[in-house]
Every structure is written in C-alpha cells, then in structure tokens.
C-alpha cells in the first residue's frame, strides 16, 4: 500500500501495524549479529569490559537527554554542539561512539577528521524535529520564495537540530547554523545580510527569539507549512513578513502548555518555572526563566538550597538534576511522562552491541556525511562560529 507525498510526489510505503517492514525508515531496529537481551544480568559488566578493551581508540559521548544506564559510560556529556566539538578535540580517537541522535552524529562526522569513524549505536535514533524539514521540502519552499520575489532578500538560518543536508542547503545559500543559546546573535547577523529570515526546523525557537529577544511582533512572523498547498502562505504575506518560520517543533518541548505552568504553580507553592526555548510561545511567556540545556543545568546547580523548580525539558535530564540536588525541590513541568523517545532508542543493549562489535573488529552503524554535503554544512557551521560574541554552543 502506498500514499503520495504531496511535496516530493514520491510514493511512501504505508505499513499496517505488525505487517511487513520498511527497511528505509526502520533502519537500526534490527542489529546484524546478536543484540544482547535487556534483561541480561551481565550487561553492565559486558559494557565495562568492552569499554576497557577499546581504551583510547574510542571516545564515548553522551547527550544530556540520554538514559542513566548509557550516560554512566560516557567520557563526556553535554549538548549536541559541545559534544561535536569535544569529538573534534580528540583526533587520536579512532571511534567516536555518539550516544545521541542522528543529526548530532552527522555534525560530529563533519567536525572530526577523515581518519575518525562516528558510530550511532542505534540507527533508529533520529530526531522528530529534524525530520520535519526534509531537503526536498526545503528546496521547494525556496522555489516558492523565489516565485514570490523574496528569495534573494531572505537569509536561511537553521537550528543545529537539523540534518546535514539542510545545513548544507543553508551554507550554499548564504546562511548560518544556530543553537538555542546563540539564536539571537545568528538572527541579528542574518538581518545584516538580508531583509527576511527563513528559520527552520523549530518554529518555537525562531518565534521566541524574534519576538521576546529581538522586539519583532507576532505579526512579523508567518509559518511556512510544507504540508499545505503553496506552503500555506500568500505572496503578499511572504512579502510583508520578516521571519518565515518553518512549521516544525520538538515533540518533547512542544508538549508543555500554559496549563502545565498554571497547574504546577498551584501544586508547588513558590515554584520557579524554568523552560527551554523550544517550548511554545504561550509557555515561555508564562515561565520565570528561559534558556538552553546548559543554562538549565547551571541554573539548578546554582539555585539556593530549599528552592523549588519546575523544569520544562527532557525527563531524563530533569530526573538527573532532581537526584543530584536532594536539597532542592526539582519537579518536571508536566504531570505526564515526557522522554525523548528517539533519544531513548540508545539503550545499554545497543551500546554493548556497538562496543563489542568494534572490539571484534566490525565497524557497525557508521554515520558518514558525503564530502560535498559536509563541505557546505561546514560553511554554515563556520559562519556561526565566526559570529562575534558567540560562546560555545548549546542545544
Ligand atoms: S528532545 Fe526534541 S529536538 Fe531533541 S532529539 Fe528529541 S525530538 Fe529532537
């Protein structure tokens, strides 16, 4: 059974639950070789032995949103860009084992040497936000802007959380990458280059930055919807708008609502609400503090004993912060559990399988960006790094 993708006109397989498999979208669900059982009591011991056997040949990176069972084996933890830069600073490591999601491993491959191989323990660990902007859609949108006569005055800016081919598109078209901590500076730079900005894939980060940090109005922003005819906007709207926001969002941060904030304020007296800028506008405008993952960690680490915090970000991180600070009341912003399901694909069985395979001389799940894409994505990353006042990036 197939359906047609309105953007690419390419047939997409539609699989009924439990019938058939789609190897192109379910990559990594099955591992060649034996994936250890999650109930194997020797799993931690096997991980330790494989890690020791790899020694300096491997460098293991763990994103802040990873499970504890994985993060305990990380040589460094951090946000996506910090991890990619950490990897680049370890040229002696033959294998970069990236416990994160696909776009992060791509960035690590772009920033590391040709002699280094980046491994993603489960190829199904994607990012739903990154997947919301596909290169064919973005190229079609750019053509739509050209038809409306605004492409030449528009500068594309992409969030770090995007695929390598989107970063390369931005690099080829005079734009830059940004992170959640430097989005304002990147947008200011973009407005020095042109009259409008096309921002993707996260509409919330783009809107929050433009309106709350840079003084644009909500009316200055329009949403480019790849699933609507004409991208859901008229030529006049394209000509009048300053910020063209791609209709994408994070499936974790996008869950929080203004009701979550109201409810936690009633439930926890005196609570400080601290959220990530990938949350919706209605949430960040109700919060007390807004900032990147690193900002959230620093704020909780430095908060006075006895203070109360409701944190709107991924649950693994919030739980770790609560465990680390038993003298503070750290709670999750929403009552519903909210892990990043794709990040959680990387579990101990996949990590053990990847490391043991490397010990046996089998390189598995290598993430490799082709040279042309890597070059142009690197151009977009370098433009971000060249911005004055840019600090090490945060996700
Ligand atoms: S938390 Fe959101 S942006 Fe980060 S990897 Fe998961 S889906 Fe993507």
UniProtKB/TrEMBL annotation:
It catalyses: iminosuccinate + dihydroxyacetone phosphate = quinolinate + phosphate + 2 H2O + H(+). Binds 1 [4Fe-4S] cluster per subunit. Its EC number is 2.5.1.72. It is found in: Cytoplasm. Pathway: Cofactor biosynthesis; NAD(+) biosynthesis; quinolinate from iminoaspartate: step 1/1. Iminosuccinate binds at residues 63, 80, 159-161, 180, 276-278, 293. InterPro entries: NadA, NadA_sf, Quinolinate_synth_A_type3. GO terms for molecular function: 4 iron, 4 sulfur cluster binding; metal ion binding; quinolinate synthetase A activity. GO terms for biological process: 'de novo' NAD+ biosynthetic process from L-aspartate. Coiled coil: none annotated. The keyword Kinase does not apply. It is an enzyme of class 2 (transferase). [4Fe-4S] cluster binds at residues 127, 250, 340. The keyword Amino-acid biosynthesis does not apply. Its main location: cytoplasm. GO terms for cellular component: cytosol. Signal peptide: none annotated. Keywords: 4Fe-4S, Cytoplasm, Iron, Iron-sulfur, Metal-binding, Pyridine nucleotide biosynthesis, Transferase. Catalyzes the condensation of iminoaspartate with dihydroxyacetone phosphate to form quinolinate. This is Quinolinate synthase. The gene is nadA.
